[in-house]
Design brief:
heterodimer; A: Maltoporin, Chain A; 26-stranded antiparallel β-barrel; B: 13 helices; 32% helix
């Protein structure tokens, strides 16, 4: 076998060395390809059907577009035309739904091509929500004329008569155009343009000092994106020169609303700034060089970009009774420069050994001018203090070293060292370093069985924690923000997989453990432990039937300390965050491909328990946050003739959540906050459909 | 003298070995694909002719004019296609694809990259998939009329064969629309490799998020420091038990960093439920009942992220 491998390697090596010019040396004059059933002409499959959705359930429509009870049209298909080297293909799915997609591509393979696409992505959040606000303009929300303000929600006498249903949902429409041109075998030019347009309603809060109202915030924006470049394959050197541009445009610069609460004179309205227009452009050069020794590869990437934002600023307040000073700037002229460099070196100096070294540097250099600003607190009164904006910047570098050695034919050992350095401006921690060491053993006693064991530790250290930065905001000096804090981590991972050579059965299991200790934090996260387990089983029972099972669980436990005083922790919260799922399915295709039956089922449970303990504050327990989902899909396809298929499909989904932040929270439940009364999810939806597939074209098989 | 003799003998042996290896002519089949199809006329193989690999008008494709057809990928397989004596085992083709194949994975992948290096080759060498000995055939079906890993609806299941824990996360109640078949792994990850962390499609995690969520990019007048640094500080992009794919339930998530005095940094416990004294700090949008601009504000009075 070893000898055979060598011969195979030599012949493949010879094949790999065959450049285009040398192809002529292989005598292919007798290679007529007479039995090759090349595709030619036009062929297509068109799917058409109707389905029935059993319930109105907005959340079920998230991603699917099937949020309304009643009939829905199912249209889709694929088609391909190929003639004289010209290829045109199209793909359509869910044309009758808000999740529709349609794409067309055309060109001459190996020479040039174009593509055009349109997609919609529905985001559906709540249909249990209601609001007292209505749009008086695209960027303004008004209260009804009958509204009576009050100091708390209990005094809103016109509330119940003013509420109207308001779904929280948005749609993302994506237009795409792409072009490819290959002037030679070694060069590929590409350009992609897309526009993502969003419209809909989300929830924002309009606050008025100690009170707030949840607002149906309109969304009307788009992002133009350009991605273009040239790729060169120059023998042992490949290179890509690329441009990336992203241009965000918000049709709504602000949101004004009528304050439903009784407030000080002049503060009857509030105004929020919405996301400003911004541009980001980046140039990059990346490449790879394959050296002629030790299978050595050098890869590099250099990118430089700039983000800009210069939207007109709103005045300090909409409250005309407050005497405000002029703004220091009418627009910010904000700029962020980004620089990203990477170098990777891999080599196999010995047939059993390989080494890898990589270095990466990422920089966010915020060049936004710093000015001093006066603040009006929630359009209600002057704060009286002045503060400067803070242009956060950072530099992050990562060094990774690793080596692998094939100890025996069946055992490969690896070890590595990673170091991450982070330098920040204007945050509590200026310099932070994380060192990680890890080891890995891969045991592969046969080609069908593999076990991987990996483990390691990491230590994140900081130069110092500057508590003065937060003090002016009233921050407790004992707090250590988790992403800035000292952390010691231990982690281990086991992965087992096996496939039986005599039977097409495969089994896989993984287990991951990670323990984080923030032992130098007096407040904040102090401990976190993760356990993740998965198991998969699949069996190709015959050429026409298969079955699979999957399961997984994840548990994240963490401890958080908090305090209202600067002395020490007053309370401890223990978070126990669990998620489990299991599922399975099968596929059976009948003899002669007459029918095809598929079934998939998934069940999942999520649960988070948060328990409080002293040492100073005693706390009342919270109910668990829960979610349960059952999802089932069944489809049966029957081949009536060479051109016609008939199919029936059934889909079921049950989703329930328990969420104490929403449970029983009516619009007037919180005295100081007028909410939209969103409820936890609870739906149970069946979708049944019948459809037909028609195959057209000379060759009925696509 | 003895050493010199040994050295000369060694050199001669090396030269002989080298000339044997170098002089071995690749043995191609006599009739190319017709030789192969004489035996391999099954649905799996014939699907090739409905896909991109068997396009006779693509000059650089395996079936383009003068190209090596099946042996462009499977290597010179004249011995495999030739006659064998009774009782003799038929030699394997020069290259068989898949992680459990006798063909070394480097060589399998080299055959693919022979043509595809200008498409995907840049990041492949030395990336995590390469160093973990993945073969192209572990993910791609080169014979299929339509490769499932290239379709959004079917790609994630192929990735989940190895990345099983990611399947678990995407099934969580708050996740990107992956299980609905409307988003795939390559929406965020450059699966053929990149020099970015986690093989992200853009240079950094934030750049990758901003690709679709450009409204969060700013730069804002008043930034929220952890947002500007790493979206992953607050969000778990693979899925979460909490709305907004947050890493922890509010207001506790905010309290992992904020312990302002007088803003009571007290536990958001059962007393604040509707059955007790409904708390503006924990119900509804919790902290965001007031501090709604958690990603940053461009309002001159927005330093507390309330405008």
């Amino acid at each position: 076998m070893r000898r055979n491998n060598k011969i195979v390697s030599i012949t493949i090596a010879a094949a790999l060395l065959i450049p285009a010019a040398a192809l002529a040396q292989v005598d292919t004059s007798e290679w007529k390809c007479e039995f090759c059933p090349f595709a030619d002409g036009y062929r297509a499959e068109v799917d058409a059907g109707v389905g029935y959705v059993s319930e109105d359930a907005l959340r079920f429509g998230n991603g699917t577009g099937m949020d309304e009870k009643g009939a829905e049209l199912e249209l889709g298909g694929d088609g391909r035309y190929l003639k004289n080297g010209t290829e045109i293909s199209w793909h359509a799915e869910d044309l009758g739904l808000d999740s529709r997609a349609l794409s067309v591509s055309a060109g001459k393979p190996g020479k040039f091509g174009f593509s055009l696409g349109y997609r919609e992505l529905p985001y559906r959040l709540f249909d249990s929500t209601a609001t007292v606000f209505s749009s008086s303009a695209a960027d303004a929300l008004s209260l009804p004329a009958t509204w009576t303000t009050a100091g708390t929600t209990a005094g809103f006498t016109a509330l119940s008569s003013s509420l109207t249903a308001q779904n929280i949902e948005k749609d993302r429409q994506i237009f795409e155009f792409g072009a490819r041109y290959l002037p030679t075998r070694k060069v590929r030019l590409y350009a992609d343009y897309s526009r993502q347009q969003r419209d809909g309603v989300s929830i924002m809060s309009g606050s008025s000092f100690t009170q707030g109202a949840l607002l149906p915030r309109p969304i009307d924006d788009y992002t133009d994106r350009v991605d273009a470049g040239a790729r060169f394959a120059l023998g042992s050197f490949d290179m890509t020169l690329a441009y990336y541009g992203s241009f965000y445009r918000n049709q709504l610069g602000s949101l004004t609303w009528d304050n439903p609460f009784t407030t000080v004179p002049g503060a009857g309205q509030g105004r929020l700034a919405l996301e400003p227009d911004n541009d980001f452009q980046q140039f990059s050069l990346s490449g790879v060089y394959r050296a002629n020794f030790w299978n050595t590869v050098f890869a590099f990437s250099v990118a430089t970009g700039r983000g800009e934002q210069d939207a007109d600023l709103l005045p300090y307040t909409i409250n005309t009774l407050l005497p405000t000073s002029p703004l220091p700037l009418t627009s910010l002229d904000a700029k962020v420069d980004t620089n990203n460099y990477a170098l990777t070196f891999t080599s196999r100096p010995h047939k059993r050994a390989s080494i890898k070294l990589s270095y990466r540097f990422d920089e966010r250099d915020n060049q936004t001018p710093v000015s001093v600003w006066s603040r009006v607190i929630t359009d209600t009164f002057l704060s009286g203090d002045a503060e400067a904006n803070v242009p956060y910047s950072f530099e992050r570098s990562r060094l990774n070293l690793s080596a692998s050695y094939r100890l025996f034919d069946t055992v490969k050992v690896s070890a590595g060292y990673d170091r991450t350095d982070l330098d920040r401006d204007f945050q509590e921690v200026a310099e932070q370093t994380e060192d990680t060491g890890w080891g890995k053993v891969r045991w592969r006693p046969t080609a069908n069985i593999e076990a991987i064991f990996k483990g390691g530790t990491s230590r994140r250290e900081i130069d110092s924690y500057d508590t003065d930065i937060g003090l002016s905001f009233g921050q407790n000096p004992l707090m250590r923000k988790f992403y800035l804090a000292y952390r010691y981590r231990e982690f281990a991972e086991v992965s087992l997989s096996a496939s039986l050579s005599e039977r097409p059965i495969s089994i896989g299991m993984t287990y991951l453990y990670a323990d984080d200790s923030y032992s130098q934090s007096e407040l904040g996260i102090t401990e976190s432990t993760e356990d993740r387990f998965t198991a998969d089983f699949s069996w190709a029972v015959s050429e026409n039937s298969s079955v699979y099972l999957t399961a997984g669980s994840e548990s994240i436990d963490s401890i958080q300390l908090g305090s209202e005083t600067f002395i020490g922790p007053m309370w401890e919260a223990t978070h126990d965050d669990d998620f489990t799922h299991y599922g399975g399915g099968f596929r059976i295709a009948g003899t002669g491909d007459k029918f095809d039956l598929t079934f998939d089922y998934t069940h999942s449970d999520g649960e988070t328990e948060i328990e409080f303990a002293g040492p100073v504050v005693s706390a009342t327990p919270l109910p668990a946050l829960e979610s349960t989902m059952d999802s089932l899909r069944l489809s049966l396809n029957y081949k009536i003739s060479e051109r016609f298929d008939a199919s029936i499909g059934i889909r079921y989904e049950r989703f329930e959540t328990a969420d104490w932040a929403l449970e029983g929270v009516q619009p007037d439940t919180i005295p100081a906050v007028l909410t939209m009364g969103a409820s936890p999810y609870d739906y149970d939806v069946w979708v049944a459909g019948i459809g037909f597939r028609y195959r057209m074209g000379a060759d009925t098989e696509l | 003298m003895r050493l010199i003799t040994l050295a000369i003998a060694g050199a001669m042996l090396f030269a002989l070995t080298a000339s044997t290896a170098g002089g071995q002519e690749p043995n191609y089949s006599r009739k190319g694909a017709d030789s192969c199809l004489a035996c391999h006329e099954n649905e799996t193989v014939l699907a090739l002719f409905r896909g991109a690999h068997a396009n006779p008008t693509d000059p650089d494709g395996p079936f383009g004019h003068g190209q090596l057809q099946c042996e462009a990928c499977h290597g010179p397989s004249g011995d495999h296609a030739g006659r064998v004596r009774r009782g003799q085992e038929r030699p394997a083709p020069a290259a068989i694809f898949g992680s459990d194949s006798v063909t070394p994975i480097d060589e399998q992948n080299g055959l693919c990259l022979n043509c595809h290096s200008k498409d995907t080759g840049f990041g492949w060498h030395g990336n995590e998939h390469d160093t973990n000995d993945l073969s192209c055939a572990d993910c791609h079906r080169s014979h299929a009329a339509a490769d499932p890993v290239l379709a959004t609806a079917t790609q994630p299941d192929i990735c989940f064969d190895c990345h099983q824990q990611k399947r678990t996360q995407t099934l969580k109640p708050y996740a990107h629309p992956i299980r609905q078949g409307k988003m795939d792994c390559s929406s965020c990850h450059s699966t053929h490799g990149a020099t970015s962390e986690w093989q992200l499609a853009q240079q950094t995690l934030n750049d990758t998020c901003f690709d679709c969520h450009a409204e969060k990019r700013g730069p804002y007048l008043w930034e929220h420091a952890p947002v500007a640094e790493d979206c992953g500080n607050c969000h778990d992009p693979h899925g979460s038990n909490y709305p907004g794919m947050l890493a922890m339930r509010g207001p506790m998530l905010c309290q992992t960093c904020h312990a302002q005095s007088g803003h009571p940094s007290l536990p958001a416990d059962g007393d604040g439920l509707p059955s007790g004294a409904p708390s503006r700090f924990m119900l509804g949008q919790n902290c965001m009942n007031c501090h709604t601009q958690s990603h940053g504000s461009n309002h001159p009075s927005g330093s507390r992220l309330m405008r």
